[in-house]
Every structure is written in C-alpha cells, then in structure tokens.
Write a structure and sequence with these properties.
This protein is α+β, with helices and mostly antiparallel strands and 118 residues long. It contains 4 helices and 5 strands. A 5-stranded antiparallel sheet has the order 2-3-1-4-5.
Amino acid sequence: MTTPQFAFAVESGKETIQELLDDRSVAECQVSVRNRGSSVDALNSPIGAPELVLGLQTAIIVFKTGAAVAAFATALVSLAIKLKQLIDVLDPKTGEKIATVSQNTDPNALKKLLGVAE
C-alpha cells in the first residue's frame, strides 16, 4: 500500500518562500524551489515590462498526510498576515490556481480548498 501524498506549488516573493521553508509545517516534506522569471524570459516575453513578474519563486511541496497539509494551510495564513503578502497556491501539475492566501483568508476555508477539510 502506498502512502497518500498531497502536492502543492506555492508562488510568492523570495522572502515569503524562504520564511515558508523555515516553518515547521514543511520540515518533513519534500521541497523543490525554482525562480520564476529571468532576464532571458523578460527579453523573450510577448508582454511589456510593466506586466512582467520577476523576482517570484515557486516552491513545490509534497506532503505525506492530510494532517500535514492542514498545518501547512494554517502556516500559510499566518505568514500572509505576518508579511502582508499574497501567496498563491497552485496545482503543481497544471499550474491552475487553487487559492490566493491573504491576510483575510479563513484557514478552515483554505483547508477545504486543499482537500483536507476538518
């Protein structure tokens, strides 16, 4: 029997991603981080400079249990409040946005969106 896994991509500024990675809620998780945007991306982009989003990082985090995802959801909301930043949670396979976490996000609603409602 395989262990159930939950995977999410989290996209925000570098400081936010680093704080998230330092949080206990992801300590036991598999994590992969990549930068979004580069000078090459900017030069080849079909949109103008104001629309470019550089300096973002994406962390893909794999959890083994729903309880770990629930703790992660609470940590995301706390981090959004602390840093006054928006944090996007995406499906890592499709890139589809699951949620945007802000200072006003209800942790229980976020847990439901992540599939681990209590």
